[in-house]
Amino acid sequence: MSEPPSSNPVVLLNEVFPGDTNALDTLFGGRLMAIMDTAAGMAASQYAHNVFVTVSVDSLKFKKPAYQGDVIRPKARVVWIS
Q: Is residue 27 part of a domain?
């Protein structure tokens, strides 16, 4: 186990569109997970110059909703490698 050298974060900008929302006009959790997975994959690929896949997510806590028209800004960086 070791920490990677300083890796640059990947920052995405995504607008929440009507097709991304549920009946309450809030972003579907699965859609947010897909966006987060994209950012994480890009950060890993940028760091290691290889292609990666997500095997599992142990836990995820949604703190507040994103509504139709909101712009979300997921940020990902490599924090640990083994």
A: yes
Q: What is the number of structural domains in the chain?
A: 1
> Could you please report the per-residue DSSP string of 10-68?
EE--EE--GGGB-TTSBB-HHHHHHHHHHHHHHHHHHHHSS-------------S--BT
The span from the CA of 81 to the CA of 79, in Å, is 7
Q: Domain containing 47: what range?
A: 10-76
Residue 81: the pLDDT is 82
Residue pair 67/25 in contact by the 8 Å Cβ criterion: yes
Within a domain: 81: no
Please report, as a single letter, which amino acid is at residue 22: N
pTM: 0.84
pLDDT 10s digits, 5-25: 567 899 999 999 999 999 999
| Residues in CB range of 59: below 8 A, 6 or more apart | none
